Amino acid sequence: MPRKKEEKDPKPKTPAKPRRPRRKKTTESNVRPSKKSAVKPSTDSVMPETKPETPIVISEETVPKVADESAVLPTETVKEMSSVDSDEIERELTDIYFDRDSDKDGDEDMSRLEKVRHSTPKKILIGLLIFTAVLAAASWIGLLFFGGSKPSFTGDQVTMSIDGPDETESGAETEFVVRYKNASDTPLGTAVLELRLLDGFFLTSSEPELEDGHTYLIGSLPPWGRGQLTFTGSLLSPLDTEHDIQAIITYRPANFSSEFQKVTTRGVSTVGSVMQIQAEGPGKSLPGDQVELTFSYRNESNRQIENAAVVASYPPEFIPESSDPSASDETYAVWRLGTVEPYGTGSVKVTGAFASEAHGDVTVTASAGYTDATESFVPQIEASVTTEVLQGELVAAMVLNGRSEEQAVRLGDLLRYSISYRNTGEASLGNVRISVQLNPSPEAGLVLWNELEDESNGQLNDGRITWTSRQIPSLARIEAGEEGVIQFSVPLSAEPPTEAENLSLIGWVETEVKSVDGDVVDRITKSQPITAKVLSDTTLSAAVWFYDEEGVPVGSGPLPPEVDQPTTYRAVWTVTNSLHDLTDLKLSANLPDNVSWTGSSQVGAGEVSYDSAERNIVWRLNWLPKTVDQVEVGFDVTIVPTASQRDRIPTLVDATTLDATDKDIDEKFTLSQPPLTTSLIEDTYGAGKGRVK
Question: Could you tell me which residues come within 8 angstroms of residue 422 by beta carbon, excluding any fewer than 6 positions away?
């Protein structure tokens, strides 16, 4: 009789899956059993058939509670349930603990229990990672909310500027504003603002007031605080020059122990000046006619101009004779005016004449300016006046040593003068007188008048030589186109006079015409002056020695020198000077081919060098004051005479040249000495032993 499953389980079948029991931990096995090897439940759980009153125990979740099964079920049914095949029970249990129909991820295998193992190092590592992430997030948040709103102080937050014009007139009052700002959350303490102004800047006022004329004590400056300094002044400087005005703020931020600085600079150019000048003079004039030139100046500013001056620049054709006010120099070219008041005016008047050789347009220029700390004149503005000089009847000119311009001469020189004259008009000139005026400085001791040489025998009187028709008969009447020449010479003293500063000699020609075609005119003209400046009394000497003054050898080798045998000599250059300071001194000479430089030298001042390629010896000295009256340079040279020099006196050092500048008169000059030989002229003990054997 077939078994009926519904009799085994009175509960109706349903497609729902039975609830799975909760997974329990176990230490017995970690191996998952297969479905085929599912554990069979113990047979002890099946009641024996001899006890039908005891039913099979089934989960309460699958079978509802009822009254006592022995009372409800018939005995026959109980017997049938007792005889259920154990294989069926196994299949049921397998269905409960293992779902054959489910392949979904996440289904749990309830047929075995596994023990979950936890790694301690892994826990620590994960914890550290979490802690680090939290800490980084906290730092970022703190920086965002606190650091971002209050950045650290670097000094860049303090700003400063100078406002003012880019250009200004020299001497004009100008205003500048220094603005400063603390663009930070950090307060500043002990702040000081310093102005660095030019030497030519004259401060008029400031707001706030400056201490010492250039410092403002700001004190403390709160966060985002600002301020400004306004100052007014005038800049007196050369025209068309760029200048810098500088402001420096020094401060100490809160919580800082060191000071910070901010520097700003403002450039300003001087264009034009508050000083003005105007030049006036005649439109036309004849040579020799007295003319007056006027230089009018004014100050167009509201402040004084100190150390004001006017300087005139004359062409050679104009000869100034006097001025009002008196000039500050002997050439009537400089006037030191002192202080010119605000909007003040004044004038300088110069009286003079155009030279006899002048003709055409002649321009005179005057400049207004000031003298700086070095007593140098700084021009601010200039003006000029041009006069047309008409051709004169008698033109005379003078030249000195073949030149008509200023020149340098030396003590002991012979001065050769030549005066030329010519009637350039159409009328005859009668009773002509020609004179030469020579004004030495100092008056005594410079010119040797008793050695004057004059073929025309002019009359000498107090430095003035005059020729009339008595000395030169042709001067009684000079017809149109006629001309003549007068020559004379006079020497200068070889020794400086007692008053030996600024030695010079100024000379010019004066002509006087009494009549023109019989008409009395009495016209006097002057020529352009020539100035002869006297150079310092510098001397150069050169000598060669084998023995010194006491007979001790300073050379070596055979004396007299012998062919193919080296002999060493000592050459000495000596420079003396006492009148003026000298600058840029240079002594030089070349060596012959068979003379060598030994490298031994004796130098009291300066430096000596030798160029082996050029075979050139050079000694240089930047400055030789007049208080040092002598300087010597010694050096040793060796000669190896050749066979061609036998019985001859060979050269040891070629010609020596001295180049220098006279600082007092700003004039370059050159001195030289002939070649040095083995003749030993200056050597008392070696003289006469220079011929080669």
Answer: 394, 395, 396, 481, 482, 483, 484
End-to-end Cα, the chain, rounded Å = 169
Compute the average pLDDT of residues 138-144: 60
Q: Say yes or no to pLDDT of 540 above 50.
A: yes
Q: 3-class DSSP state for residue 255?
A: coil
Angstrom distance (rounded) from CA 319 to CA 285: 13
Q: What is the Cα–Cα distance from 480 to 13, expressed in whole angstroms?
A: 168
Dihedrals φ, ψ of 367, to 5°? Answer: -125, 140
Per-residue pLDDT for 231 more than 90? yes
pLDDT > 90? residue 202: no
* DSSP code, position 123: H
φ, ψ for residue 394, nearest 5 deg: -120, 120
> Whose structure tokens read 């406002």?
163
Are 500 and 454 a contacting pair, CB within 8 Å?
A: no
Confidence label for 122 from pLDDT (cuts 50, 70 and 90): confident
Distance CA 187, CA 28 (A): 76
CA distances from 290 to 55, 255, 348, 351, 427 (A): 168, 82, 17, 7, 22
C-alpha 95 chain-centroid distance: 103
- Average pLDDT on 638-662 reads 95
Structure confidence at residue 331 as a pLDDT band (50, 70, 90): confident
Q: What is the spatial distance between Cα 35 and Cα 39, in angstroms, rounded to a whole number?
A: 9
Position 552 pLDDT exceeds 70? yes
Q: How far is CA 465 from the centre of its chain?
A: 58
Instruction: Find where tokens 């003005």 sit.
Output: 276
Tell me the domain boundaries of the chain.
1-18+36-104, 158-272, 274-389, 395-534, 539-677
Task: Please check the confidence at residue 567 and state whether its pLDDT lies above 50.
Answer: yes
Residue 53, both tokens: 């009153």
Chain position carrying tokens 């005059």 = 466
Task: Give me the amino acid identity at 552.
Answer: V
CA atoms of 484 and 479, how far apart (whole Å): 11
Average the pLDDT over 623-636 and give the result: 94
What strands, in cross-sheet order, belong to the sheet with 607-611? 607-611, 616-624, 582-590, 656-662, 667-673
CATH number of 158-272: 2.60.40.1080, 3.10.180.10, 3.90.180.10, 2.60.40.10? 2.60.40.10
Give tens-digit pLDDT for 673-686.
999 999 999 999 99
Is the CB of residue 509 less than 8 Å from the CB of residue 464?
Answer: no
CATH hierarchy code of domain 395-534: 2.60.40.740
| DSSP 8-class letter at 46 | S
Say how many C-beta atoms besides its own lie within 10 A of residue 575's C-beta.
Answer: 25
The more confident residue out of 541 and 38 is 541
- Return the higher-pLDDT residue of 14 and 392: 392
Looking at domain 539-677, its CATH class is mainly beta
Give 391-449 pLDDT, tens digit per residue. 878 899 999 999 989 999 999 999 999 999 999 888 899 999 999 999 998 888 899 99
At 272, the amino acid letter reads: G
Q: CATH fold of 274-389, please?
A: Immunoglobulin-like (2.60.40)
Tokens 């397998």 label which residue?
Answer: 94
Q: Express each pLDDT in 455-479 by its tens digit.
A: 999 999 999 999 999 999 999 999 9
Separation of alpha carbons 615 and 601, rounded Å: 16
CA contacts within 13 A on the Cβ side of 495: 4
State the Cα angle at 81 between 75 and 82, rounded to 5°.
90
Three-state SS string over 187-254 comes to CEEEEEEEEECCCCEEEEEEECCCECCCEEEEEEECCCCEEEEEEEEEECCCCCCEEEEEEEEEEEEC
